[in-house]
Design a protein that fits this description.
single chain, seven-stranded antiparallel sheet, Chitinase A, domain 3
Length: about 325
């Protein structure tokens, strides 16, 4: 997805620095904004439909609205037709890669473009204020090229994650084996490294990919600290958890483990970090590379309906 720093209604407010403008200091008026090109590098300017990556720092009064370098990545925007005054996109067809510019937008212009019903406004968005923008163009790409580059980055990230998981797996397995020996537990291990124990077998056929499963669960870290539960009132959501199994709605260890169960089954899952959240922390309770345990119960199993939920969810 193309990243934007601010809500669409205020996207024109991306700005940097404090610069007054006027005809005596080189600023030009263009489509509801004022601009001055500081560095002009020869090259192809952005065309409609192109994807522009740009560094930016945005300020209005003393408020910093955006700072791409502090945020760790350039802003990204698709060049589209400008329909309202004060839209930052108006400047892109004037710039090429390597160019930098200062853009000043009047808050009066933005206020005119906001829906009448919008009453809650940020304190800097008031009559008479100016939003000042210093920006530099990092790249200009066609949508096709941008998508290819994003796919390549995603592939590289997946490769790195796979390598890290492969390195972490034997470490987690040793920790789990020591834990089982200490606590006199004898769970079953799958080929992926998941350990599970069936507490109650349940009845009927085994759960299969795509079925809609309703579960009760309590999740803990290996040291016994509970981080989530849908049966404990302290976690605030005492209701069954329903999802389509085997389609990436939950962590890998759950997708695999639930398909080992039947309706009515109760089980314990011991999930190594590569099958959980890997090197990514999940809030204050789940540190990077955490091994997780889940006490689970299959409440119901039904035919899966088309999944409307969008990106995969987790149990938190």
């Amino acid at each position: 997805m193309i990243k934007r720093f601010l809500p669409i209604a205020l996207i024109s407010a991306l700005a940097i620095g404090a610069t007054s403008c006027g005809s005596n200091n080189g600023f030009k008026k263009y489509k509801g904004l004022e601009y001055k090109i500081i560095k002009d590098v020869p090259g192809k300017t952005a065309a409609m439909g192109d994807i522009v990556e740009f560094n930016i720092v945005a300020k209005a009064d003393t408020f910093t609205l955006a700072n791409s370098r502090m945020q760790g990545a350039p802003g990204v925007m698709r060049v589209e037709e400008v329909k309202k005054g004060g839209d930052l996109q108006a400047i892109f067809p004037l710039l090429s890669v390597g160019d930098s510019a200062v853009v000043v937008i009047s808050c009066d212009t933005l206020l005119k473009n906001l829906p009448p019903a919008q009453k809650q406004l940020p304190p800097w968005l008031k009559k008479g204020n100016k939003i000042t923008i210093n920006m530099s163009v990092v790249s200009i790409k066609s949508m096709e090229q941008y998508q290819k580059d994003m796919d390549a980055k995603k592939e590289q990230m997946m490769k790195e994650m796979t390598e890290k998981s492969a390195a972490q797996a034997p470490i987690d397995d040793k920790i789990l084996q020591d834990y089982f020996a200490k606590n006199n537990l004898k769970p079953t291990k799958t080929a992926s490294g998941l350990y599970y124990s069936i507490v109650k077998p349940g009845s009927g056929p085994a759960i299969t990919k795509g079925q809609s499963v309703t579960m009760n669960y309590t999740g803990k870290t290996l040291d016994g600290k509970m981080f989530d539960s849908n049966t404990d009132p302290s976690k605030g959501h005492v209701q069954p958890f329903t999802f389509n199994v085997g389609v990436g709605r939950v962590i890998k260890g759950w997708d695999e483990g639930v398909m080992l169960l039947k309706k009515g089954s109760k089980a314990m899952f011991y999930i190594p970090s590569p099958l959980a959240y890997g090197p990514q922390a999940q809030g204050p309770d789940i540190a990077p590379n955490s091994i997780l345990t889940f006490d689970v119960e299959v409440v119901d199993v039904k035919a899966g309906a088309p999944d409307p939920q969008g990106p995969p969810q987790q149990m938190q």
